[in-house]
Design brief:
Length: 579
């Protein structure tokens, strides 16, 4: 369905035309709600073209608009604004139409688009740390936003499962257990493979990584293991598969708790089969050349303000690296999906890497111009000291520990309030997740933010808990009646204000999609919740004696709940029916 801004834009454009002006028209929600609900400043653009004072044009257009019965007021205001206010009847009808719409009036403006989102990006064998939290929750949210606006979206986790970290783990395990058959050069399919556990991997990787920094021989061994793995040495592949099995189970359980899912669990290893083609293309196009033993491609451009170094596509030891697998993955993505867009939800600090990859992919013709490659960087989650969030003892915070911490805090809160007695754990998980997800997503993704548990858990202010609380409050109203609401007429200012925020919501969704930033959805759901709360405090609902008022308020409450839940849904936040 058309949004109110779209309807107004069409009407104002028609009025301009009727008055003899051919001008591009923009209508926005008014930034002076005390004066009007909507405004249009396009008369200013007409001043030059038509050699007329803008207010004269504005006056004429406003007069033409006044004839339309959707406006209670349309006026030209000096020096040239067109201010518009809708009738309550139109606002009410618009809200009713949105309530009926299968997408609640959220525009499906991304229909027909195919989008691949690369997010999550965990590294196999390394424990998930909180840096991976942001990619997962931002990526999941962008996927759901684009999907609910009509796009065909698939998410690919793009695991780091083929690089040095695996070589380190293999090297460390082989030092500790030299007798394992998988390390023997004559290992063959069917030979015994040791069973690993997540706890083991969590201990082995940090030990190996620390050792490689001081022990040169060990570090070389890890590189050799990486190279041999990439060249499919059988014992290593068997061990790698076991590492993958354990790691993926562990990852899945963490992502499940976050309510984050992926259509494709591909890893860098899956790109391996496309590497020969990649190398072939780069060579045939004369793009790759040897430099200090490595194979590189120049990607600098004349207009670069900061230097963009050549991208390394094969190291001097002949093993493939991060950029190699990212480029080969693009071959696979184009072949399998031929998407219109590929979005990378990756830490800001990897911007240069992806810039190099994108440029190389364009130069090589792997990705055509009509497919957009977009780096959607995100900032760092900091502790209260403004430095990357750490555990109390200064270590890197594990994602699983963080999930436990918030769940515990939510449980303590539930028990303190005493409203929930059954399924406490499940409620606690949902509330805890709402707190951290909203606390993260409310910030524009590109910004750093401070993780502040007390703030995120507060039931007041821009928090997930406040939104959940508002939903559960509406639920408790609805539980008390069987009556079905109907939009009949607006009878109070707070009703009008709330419904205006509803009918203005589509523009926030459009902004969120065009900027690829869930923060717009967070701001909007907060505004809706605040407007509903004001309405709730000032009006009777089920015990209102006047039937028209009562039915309208019930319909408004049902719409409020549906809208809030729809916003929460795309933020990846599950509502609770009581709190
Ligand atoms: N595994 C990487 C890391 O932990 C993130 C992967 C991002 N995606 C990509 N296509 N490079 O830093």
């Amino acid at each position: 369905m058309q949004s109110v801004i779209e309807i107004l834009t069409a009407k104002v454009a028609e009025a301009f035309k009727k008055c003899g002006y051919d001008l591009p028209v923009i209508v926005t929600v008014s930034d002076r709600p005390d004066l009007c609900q909507y405004q249009c400043n396009s008369a200013f653009a007409g001043a030059k073209a038509y050699k007329k004072a803008p207010f004269m044009i504005a006056d004429e257009v406003a007069a033409a608009l006044s004839e339309d019965e959707i406006f209670s007021k349309a006026e030209g205001v000096k020096p040239g604004f067109i201010n518009m206010t809708l009738t309550d009847d139109f606002i009410c009808k618009m809200a009713a139409a949105m309530a009926e719409d299968k997408n609640l009036g959220i525009p499906e403006c991304a229909k027909g688009e195919k989008i691949v989102i690369d997010y999550g990006g965990p590294n196999v064998a390394k424990p998930l740390h909180i840096g991976h939290l942001r990619s997962a929750i931002i990526g999941q949210s962008l996927k759901l936003i684009a999907r609910s606006m009509g796009a065909d979206v698939v998410g690919d986790i793009h695991m780091g499962d083929w690089g040095l970290q695996i070589g380190l783990v293999i090297a460390e395990l082989s030092e500790r257990n030299p007798g394992w058959k998988v390390f023997s050069p004559d290992f063959k399919a069917g030979d015994e493979v040791p069973e690993l556990t997540a706890e083991m991997l969590n201990e082995v990787y940090p030990a190996a990584s620390a050792r490689s920094k001081t022990d040169k021989e060990f570090s070389e061994k890890a590189h050799t293991c990486t190279f041999d793995l990439q060249n499919r040495r059988e014992g290593y592949i068997a061990l790698w598969k076991e590492i993958m099995r354990v790691s993926c189970n562990d990852l899945r359980s963490n992502y499940d708790k976050l309510n984050v899912d992926f259509e494709y669990w591909y890893g860098e290893s899956d790109a391996d089969k496309d590497i020969p083609e990649l190398m072939d293309i780069l060579e045939k196009k004369g793009l790759s050349y040897e430099s200090e033993g490595a194979l590189v491609v120049d990607v600098a451009e004349e207009t670069d303000k900061a230097p963009v170094p050549p991208v390394i596509v094969r190291k001097s030891d002949k093993s493939s690296i991060y950029a190699t697998t990212d480029l080969a993955t693009l071959i696979q993505r184009m072949r399998d999906f031929s998407p219109d867009k590929i979005w990378y939800v990756v830490d800001n600090r990897q911007e240069l890497h992806l810039k190099q990859v994108f440029r190389c992919a364009r130069k090589a013709g792997i990705v055509p111009e009509c497919t957009a490659l977009e780096f959607l960087g995100f900032g760092t989650m900091n502790g209260e000291d403004g430095k990357p969030y750490k555990t109390r003892d200064g270590g890197v915070m594990r994602l699983s520990d963080m999930i436990q911490t918030v769940t515990d805090a939510a449980l303590a809160r539930i028990d303190e309030q005493g409203n929930v007695t059954e399924n406490r754990e499940e409620y606690a998980r949902k509330i805890g997740m709402a707190a951290i997800k909203f606390g993260d997503l409310i910030n524009h993704r590109s910004k750093d933010y401070i993780f502040d548990m007390d703030k995120f858990m507060s039931s007041e202010g821009k928090t997930g808990v406040y939104i959940l609380y508002t939903v559960s409050r509406i639920n408790s109203v609805m539980r008390k009646t069987d009556e079905k609401g109907r939009f009949i007429a607006i009878s109070s200012d707070t009703e009008r204000d709330f419904l205006l925020s509803v009918i203005n919501s589509p523009e926030c969704w459009k902004n969120s999609l065009s900027e690829k930033a869930p923060s717009y959805i967070c701001d909007n759901v907060y505004n809706l919740a605040v407007a509903y709360s004001r309405f709730y405090h000032e009006n009777r609902i089920i015990d209102e004696a006047d039937e028209n008022k009562r039915l309208t308020r019930l319909a408004l409450s049902a719409l409020a709940r549906d809208m809030l839940v729809k916003h929460l849904e795309v933020l990846g936040i599950e509502p609770v029916d009581r709190m």
